[in-house]
């Protein structure tokens, strides 16, 4: 089978590391990078260190409003699909790249395969929610990470297309967690950062938390007051704001770094005291590693993680974050909601058995 896979953002590169490795054992894969994440630290480093095949197409589409970006992607992706004439299109997650690819394919009568289908926040005010819903309803096959995701697809009348395969990010996490680690972490000036013996790990990139100074200041004040330094891997668009807040508030206990590669992030996660993030992926990785997490958002992204204080919703408020970080977590060793780390192989098994 000839499959066109479309990726565009860092979480999709992580999923494609496992997905492409499995797909290419049995199928011909054409990999398309829309360019949505274009910074080298958010894109090139991931392809290189994770062994992802070089993209057959790099569309170089980034920046602009959601509508502008999605429209440009639709035009370019339609041309790729008309040229390649694949048997199916495969997409991951909930980005603009995902929705644009699904729309382009379904209008050309190309079956869409959606990995990580069925997740819902319950609000259309979140742009990723819109992307995921549209993609799910355009798709021929829906590969859900959990039983909860499948139940949500069933409520939308999509149950017959849905299969629970586990979280494909767990595949990649397990693979890289077992590899030796030599940190390659850089500060804003490109100097090597020495990882402290004890530290907290933080990422924060969503518009709700970084669009103005106030929420990010509250988050950083909380981290600065902890009993060990915080390593904050900063998204490129937040570089200036984070640096300005650190200088203004005199945050000596916060280490600002460039975005880190996936291996670095996995090992920073494994060895952190606790984690604060607004990343849907990092909160899951914290769960896999058994490291307590506070998720700074108004909506639950992965309800499976919200058990035993292992992951807690937090507000961009210093006192709320510190209160959540002070709670103790309880881990049930028999609770494995995200599968067994073989989601990619299960997807290939299903593709072998179904008729598209």
Into how many domains do the coordinates divide? 2
Q: Please identify which CATH superfamily of the largest domain we are dealing with.
A: Glycogen Phosphorylase B
Strand order of the largest sheet: 3-2-1-4-5-6-7
Number of helices, counting only DSSP H or I runs of 4 residues or more: 14
- Please name the CATH architecture of the largest domain: 3-Layer(aba) Sandwich
Query: How far apart lie the N and C ends?
Result: 11 Å
Task: Supply the helix-strand structural class.
Answer: alpha/beta
* The CATH class of the largest domain: Alpha Beta
Q: What's the SSE pattern?
A: EHEHEHEHEHEHEHEHHEHEHEHEEHH
What portion of residues is helical?
40-55%
State Rg: 20 Å
Let me know the average pLDDT: 94
CATH topology of the largest domain: Rossmann fold
Strand tally:
13
The fraction of residues in strands falls at 15-25%
Spatial shape = globular
Uncertain ranges: none
Q: Specify the biggest β-sheet.
A: 7 strands, parallel
